[in-house]
């Protein structure tokens, strides 16, 4: 799908690239216009017409920030989600993480020290630079995301992450919860200060209001990886465990960093130069031949929808490692350190806020199962019917925790069900604002490929954006 690439210059001088997909919105708008224009003229006895009851003031599209998989780039969003998000009334903003895609600057410069007298420092830039650790990089990226939100001037927004985008989604959510807590504290302090000033000045004082915090409405995780859950159920468990060992020891082991750089370089070469020239049929056959691929994924891969998906997705992957440098692919290397790491501190922040015991409300935990089970790829999650438990709270309440939707295929062996269950049960504590949507027979690709309408509907859910279809019939 055609994309428009945008660039934001960050406060630290680096660049952040993101993509929008106007074609997806134009197609949705044309479809909506056709629906509005439908008029069935009967004979003289009556006329049947179908119209849509829109709000008097046209609503802007709800912004949805998209966090791509691993390894990949923001163009992925145009293949997986842009059209579904547009149909649901949203607009997708797909970010290229640092070092990924063609423009987004890496977290730190590689081999940028040209002083021949500082070879040792140059080597440190590649292996021991303090900015190359996952904690610092992840915090940096989260701040970059907030710069983008502020630059856009959004009052509210949602976030959507697929597969390897999971850790980044959780990090942004944790940051939002901290900002929300800080905002409440400032408001409390301001209120106390205002009361004190009023007492001293007989009510003639004025207090400058705080800048409103953009509200994070919905958090959508789709087949999202969370290595804190472990590697059980992953199709190549031994390889994932080996990769995790390298990641965990990278801060102290030069050998581990060497192998991670080698992996990043290999991934860059394969995706930039090999995959794009291979016939789609070869890629499909190779995936089907894998004994670990679930039946649902095999069927979807050879379907017309699957073929169309890969014809767009493979060229998009070619831009993934476009910034690859000699013996280094900084984006893939840094992404690996974050995505494959077993634990991130932001998980504990989320646990604290989704603890179910706020204001002594211990009954909030698992008031319903929060699990929607669909046994076939043809069945769908109904956001209007199945979100009744989430709608019990006033979604226009700015103090409300973001609604969390965890979408998972039970047959997924790339990111197993245990990861979704761990997030729902251990990180979100089965909170009433968290929902696990489970597709019993689907795998990784078939969930992402066939259920985009479901997770797009969740990501864009807002009470103020509901459209009502009315049927007017007049008989004589």
Can you put this structure into words, describing what you see?
This protein is an alpha/beta fold. The protein has a domain at 4-108 and 130-182 and 215-235 and 345-475: Rossmann fold (3-Layer(aba) Sandwich). The protein is 44% helix and 16% strand. The chain contains 18 helices and 12 strands. It has helices spanning 22-37, 76-80, 82-87, 119-127, 134-152, 166-201, 237-249, 254-274, 280-289, 295-301, 304-317, 330-339, 346-353, 383-386, 388-391, 417-427, 444-450, 452-459, and strands at 4-9, 15-20, 39-40, 46-53, 62-67, 90-95, 156-162, 215-222, 371-374, 403-409, 434-439, 468-475. The strands form 2 sheets. It has a 9-stranded mixed sheet with strand order 1-2-6-5-7-8-10-11-9, sandwiched between helices. A hairpin with a 5-residue loop joins strand 3 and strand 4 (46-53).
CATH hierarchy: architecture of the domain at 4-108 and 130-182 and 215-235 and 345-475: 3-Layer(aba) Sandwich
Q: Could you say what the CATH topology of the domain at 4-108 and 130-182 and 215-235 and 345-475 is called?
A: Rossmann fold
| Contiguous uncertain segments of 5+ residues | 38-58, 110-131, 359-363, 464-476
Distance between the ends: 49 Å
Largest sheet: 9 strands, mixed
The fraction of residues in strands falls at 15-25%
Given the structure, what is the number of helices?
A: 18
Number of strands: 12
Overall geometry: globular
In spatial order, strands of the major sheet run 1-2-6-5-7-8-10-11-9
Give the name of the CATH superfamily of the domain at 4-108 and 130-182 and 215-235 and 345-475: Alpha/Beta hydrolase fold, catalytic domain
**Average residue-wise pLDDT:** 80
Order of helices and strands: EEHEEEHHEHHEHEHHHHHHHEHHEHEHHE
Q: Structural class of the secondary structure composition?
A: alpha/beta
Rg, nearest Å: 24 Å
Output the CATH class name of the domain at 4-108 and 130-182 and 215-235 and 345-475: Alpha Beta
Described by its quaternary structure, the protein is single chain
Fraction in helix: 40-55%
């Amino acid at each position: 799908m055609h994309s428009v690439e945008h660039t934001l210059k960050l406060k630290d001088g680096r660049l952040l690239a993101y993509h929008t997909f106007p074609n997806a919105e134009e197609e949705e708008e044309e479809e909506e216009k056709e629906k509005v224009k439908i008029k069935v003229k009967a004979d003289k006895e009556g006329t049947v017409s179908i119209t849509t009851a829109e709000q008097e003031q046209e609503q802007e599209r709800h912004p949805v920030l998209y966090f791509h998989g691993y390894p990949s780039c923001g163009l992925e969003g145009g293949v997986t989600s842009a059209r579904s998000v547009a149909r649901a009334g949203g607009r997708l903003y797909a970010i290229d993480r640092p070092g990924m895609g063609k423009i987004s600057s890496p977290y730190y410069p590689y081999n940028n020290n040209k002083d021949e007298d500082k070879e040792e420092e140059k080597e440190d830039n590649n292996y021991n630079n303090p900015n190359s650790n996952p904690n610092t990089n992840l915090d940096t990226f989260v701040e970059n995301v907030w710069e983008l939100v502020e630059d856009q001037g959004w009052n509210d927004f949602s976030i959507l992450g697929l597969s390897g985008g999971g850790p980044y989604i959780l990090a942004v959510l944790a940051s939002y919860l901290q900002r929300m807590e800080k905002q409440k504290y400032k408001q409390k302090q301001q209120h106390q200060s205002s009361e004190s000033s009023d007492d001293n000045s007989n009510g003639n004082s004025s207090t400058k209001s705080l800048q409103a915090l953009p509200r994070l409405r919905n958090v959508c995780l789709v087949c999202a990886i969370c290595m804190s859950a472990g590697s059980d159920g992953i199709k190549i468990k031994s390889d994932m465990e080996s990769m995790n060992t390298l990641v965990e020891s990278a801060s102290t082991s030069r050998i581990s960093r060497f192998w991670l750089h080698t992996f990043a370089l290999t991934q860059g070469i394969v995706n930039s130069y090999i995959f794009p020239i291979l016939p789609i049929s070869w890629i499909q056959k190779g995936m089907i031949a894998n004994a670990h691929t679930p039946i649902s994924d095999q069927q979807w891969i050879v379907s017309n929808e699957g073929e169309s998906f890969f014809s767009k997705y493979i060229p998009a992957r070619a831009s993934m490692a476009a910034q690859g440098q000699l013996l280094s692919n900084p984006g893939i290397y840094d992404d690996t350190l974050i995505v494959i790491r077993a634990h991130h501190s932001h998980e504990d922040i989320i646990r604290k806020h989704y603890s179910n015991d706020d204001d002594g409300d211990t009954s909030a935990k698992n008031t319903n199962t929060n699990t929607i089970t669909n046994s076939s790829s043809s069945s769908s999650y109904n956001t209007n019917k199945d979100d009744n438990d989430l709608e019990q709270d006033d979604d226009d309440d700015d103090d409300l925790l973001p609604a969390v939707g965890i979408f998972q295929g039970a047959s997924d062996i790339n990111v197993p069900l245990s990861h979704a269950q761990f997030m729902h049960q251990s990180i979100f504590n089965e909170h009433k604002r968290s929902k696990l949507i489970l597709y019993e027979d689907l795998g990784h690709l078939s969930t992402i490929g066939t259920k985009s309408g479901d997770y797009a509907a969740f990501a864009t859910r807002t009470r103020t954006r509901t459209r009502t279809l009315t049927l007017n019939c007049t008989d004589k």
